[in-house]
């Protein structure tokens, strides 16, 4: 029984530490429209840069923010 409690406390402490360090923010995508109001693709911010995707989620390019 004491072995079980020791293992359980180790996993609780270890699991809590790794969960806090590996937490990632959800990715946010934004719609891109043309001048006629039709959706042309998506844009995603990654750090200081922006990645552009077309309607089929194929990468079209990126914009570097200086």
Description:
There is one protein chain. By secondary structure, the chain is α+β, with helices and mostly antiparallel strands. It has a domain at 25-66. The protein has 1 helix and 4 strands, in the order H-E-E-E-E. It has one helix at 2-21; strands at residues 29-33, 39-46, 49-54, 59-64. Strands 1-2-3-4 form a 4-stranded antiparallel beta sheet, with no helix packed on it. The protein is elongated and about 70 Å long.
How are the SSEs ordered, and which strands pair?
Elements lengths: L1 H20 L7 E5 L5 E8 L2 E6 L4 E6 L2
Antiparallel strand pairs: 1-2, 2-3, 3-4
The neighbouring-strand order within the major sheet is 1-2-3-4
Poorly predicted segments: none
The chain-level structural class is alpha+beta
Beta content comes to: 35-45%
Mean pLDDT: 75
Query: Using only CA atoms, what is the Rg?
Result: 22 Å
Give the fraction of residues assigned to helices.
25-40%
Described by the principal axes of the CA atoms, the overall outline is elongated
How far do the termini sit from each other?
60 Å
SSE run: HEEEE
What characterizes the major β-sheet? 4 strands, antiparallel
Provide a count of the helices.
1
Total E-strand runs: 4
**Oligomerization category of the chains in this entry:** single chain
């Amino acid at each position: 029984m004491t072995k079980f409690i020791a293992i359980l406390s180790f996993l609780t402490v270890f699991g809590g530490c790794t969960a806090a360090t590996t937490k990632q923010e959800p990715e946010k995508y934004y719609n891109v429209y043309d001048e006629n109001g039709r959706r042309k693709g998506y844009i995603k911010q990654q750090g200081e840069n922006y990645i552009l995707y077309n309607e089929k989620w194929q990468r079209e390019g990126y914009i570097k923010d200086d």
